[in-house]
Automatic annotation (TrEMBL), chain B:
This is ATP-binding cassette domain-containing protein. Belongs to the ABC transporter superfamily. Gene3D superfamilies: P-loop containing nucleotide triphosphate hydrolases. It is found in: Cell membrane. It is a peripheral membrane protein. Its main location: membrane. Residues 6-241 form the ABC transporter domain. Residues 261-302 are annotated as: Disordered. It comes from Tritonibacter litoralis. PANTHER family: NITRATE ABC TRANSPORTER ATP-BINDING PROTEIN (PTHR42788:SF7), TAURINE IMPORT ATP-BINDING PROTEIN-RELATED (PTHR42788).
Amino acid sequence: MIRNLDMRSSLLSLVILIAGLFIWQVTTYVPDTGPIGVELSQAEEDALLANNMLPEDIEFYASQGVEFAQLEQIASLNLSRDMIEAAGGIRALGISVPDQDSAPAPGSLFPSPTLVGKELWATVTDPFYVNGTNDMGYGIQMGYSLLRVVIGYALAALVAIPLGFLIGMSPMVYKALDPFIQVLKPISPLAWMPIALFTIGDSELSSLFVIFICSLWPMLTNTAFGVANVRADWVNVARTHELSALRTAVTVILPAAAPTIITGMRISIGIAWLVIVAAEMLVGGTGIGYVVWNEWNGLRLDRMIVAILLIGVVGMLLDAAFARLQRAVEYAE
Amino acid sequence: MAKPFLSIERLTQQFPDGAGGTLTVFENSTFGVEKGEFVCILGHSGCGKSTIMNILAGLAEPTSGVVKMDGKHVSGPSLDRGVVFQNYSLLPWLSALKNVTFGVKARYPGWSKDKVEAHAKEYLAMVGLDGEVINRKPSQLSGGMRQRVSIARAFANQPKLLLLDEPFGALDALTRGTIQDELIKVWSQTEQTVFMITHDIDEAILLADRILLMTNGPFARVAESVEITIPRPRNRTEIVEHPNYYAIRNHLVQFLGQRSKELAGQQSHGDDQSPESVVIDKTATPPEAQSEPATLRAVSNE
């Protein structure tokens, strides 16, 4: 049969996916109840007719799914269908009726996989539309988030890697900075947000700062650890070859510590991506985190799920990129 | 008397013993190595051989005493003193060739890339490495091949003094034999001055012009300097037939087995601790003095 491990694991993944989608579909399935019309009893119809409501109006609104109690309201207002439509439809009267196009369908607020799939398709086929500040393609929103992450992360790398080198190479600096690092490191990135908002003022810069601060620590500690633990033999090789401190750092310590440094960078990008979503929910305006919040507020759960799914996919791609980088600098002893 | 090429003068090394006192590894150790000479140093673990090696390499500072090479004070590591470490110390992210060019580039910064590469390849070929092998990473090489690369790297730098720290310690006997032969070959082509640490008596006799014997520590010292009176070129299967071979070997075994302990722990009281020169040459003595039963017994007991 199928002997190849990759094949078997892919098959298993597929089975799990299908099972998951099936369970999702079943639990969110709303049976087709035919036309959404409401069957009125003879007594009810008579009551409406007694209220001077036209028979064709009764039939029309009942077929639209308007309940007897609401029909009674309409009848009591003494409005004909033409007048209602002229006023902007039945909803303009404040009477809520089910809408064929509206999602979710009554019975299940949670969107089914088919609904999400449709929305996902619409999103990936048209990712860059702009219909206003609150209605932009997810590609654009994702771009905002990625840009913030890249800027905050790059600034963190610029600080963390040289500083990590210094800490790793100098036990004195290590001991001096260690207490600060130990205290600052466990602080939740979002806890910095109020301080950032107050001191920096600008919300855009504040979210960059939060990305910066959360990306800093794994890179800093991993670089310091990697540099401090470069095998003494390799450093001795550099010393016996009379390499300058800079050349030793570049040609011996950097490649020796690179796998550890990249591991720190990989952890950092993961955290930065987690934090940007939360930060954008707080700060608002643009970004995929804001999209999730916005769709939630609009109760477009299907679009929200699509956004969440895309966050996962982009996070995976970021991680995969660093995994590739990691393989490139890895060495076997 | 003229100073030797490499002169170790009143070298003392002390470490804190962890209980508030000091541990003297060796003190006032004084000896020399001539230019072009191949000297092996033999002694038990912990007698301070590696410490001497690190001081000569400039990787460690002695508590007191000086090392002079070519009349100049040695301090800190230098390209003039190449080191072959026991664990090869190849940079694992570089190929064998790149490991050698790494050293050559440091030694001759002005050389063109092609020249550096050609030079590195030449020395790799001397230790029997050529073709596709030199583009492999150290992890893809056997222990013997790695040590060959390490030796090539050291020789390619043409240092004035080559320091070998138990270079064959981690290799199996057969590989060790092959690389010893290659080492002799390279050495005879380059006329390097070599200072080598070893645990292996036969290896020392095969390679060295002179063997320095160290007593056990603490207060270790280089007690004897035994001249290897076996002509070169030497061959491992032929030297055992030489009349001096077992005489020298027995002397060394005796020293390491017994006298290194008896002589241990003698403090210098401020005197220079120079080795006593020992020359064992059976070829100069009457033939009946050869192959005494006692000599053979000592060998079979070993």
